[in-house]
Amino acid sequence: MRVFRGSIAAFVALLLCCIQVHAVQLQDYSTNENGNVGVVGQVTITNVDSNDNSLRLNGAHIRIVDKDTNEEFLEIIRDDGILVYELPFGNYWISQVLAPDEYQLNTRVYEFSLQLPPGPDASNIKVVNASVTMANELINPDVITISESEPIPLSLPSVAEETENAAPSPDRNPATSDTFNVLPFVIVFLGIIILACSVALKRLNRKY
Description:
It is a single chain. By secondary structure, this protein is of the alpha+beta class. Among the domains are: 1-30; 36-136, Immunoglobulins (Immunoglobulin-like, Sandwich). Helix content is 29%, strand content 25%. The strands form two sheets. It has a four-stranded antiparallel sheet, with no helix packed on it. It has a three-stranded mixed sheet with strand order 4-1-7, with no helix packed on it. A hairpin with a 5-residue loop joins β2 (61-66) and β3. The chain is rod-shaped, with a radius of gyration of 53 Å.
C-alpha cells in the first residue's frame, strides 16, 4: 500500500513539473525581447505610380536588410500594390531590386524602425507598425524619334505668308491691256482733216 501511494505521489510531482516547464516555454514564446507579451512588429510597403498615387503597382521585388545583423528578406508585392511583412524589432533598410512592368526602377533606399515607444501605455500595444511608400515612374512608350532628314514644321504657314511667297504673275502687255490705245482715234482724226481739206479745195476751184 505504501509503495502504491509513493508511486502516485511521484507521478503527480512529475506531472506538475511538466506543466510548469510547458507554461514557461509558452511565456517565452509569446514574449518579445522587451518583455511585452504578444507584441509583433510589421512594416507596410505601398508601391504607387509617381504621377498618380491612387494607382497601385504590383510586381516589384523588395529587399529588406536588418541594419544590425545584415540579415536580408526578399519579397514581391502582389496584393493591390501593398505588402505587409512581419519582422523582429530593430532598424531596417528597404530598397527595390526589380521594378513593376513598364516602370523605371526606384533606386532610393528607405529606412524604418520597429521599436516599442517609451511610456506606461506600451503594455497595451499589440502591433508596432511602420509604413513605407515607394513610387515608380512610367517608361513612356510614346516617344517618337524624328529623323533629321525629314524635319517636321513647327507651324503651318498663314494665308498671308502663302500669298507673299507665291510665284509672281507675268506682266501684262501694255499695248493690249493697261495702256490706252490711241491709234484708231489718230486715224479717224486724220481722215476728218483730209476730208475737210478736200472740201475746201473743191470750193476754191469753183470760185476760180
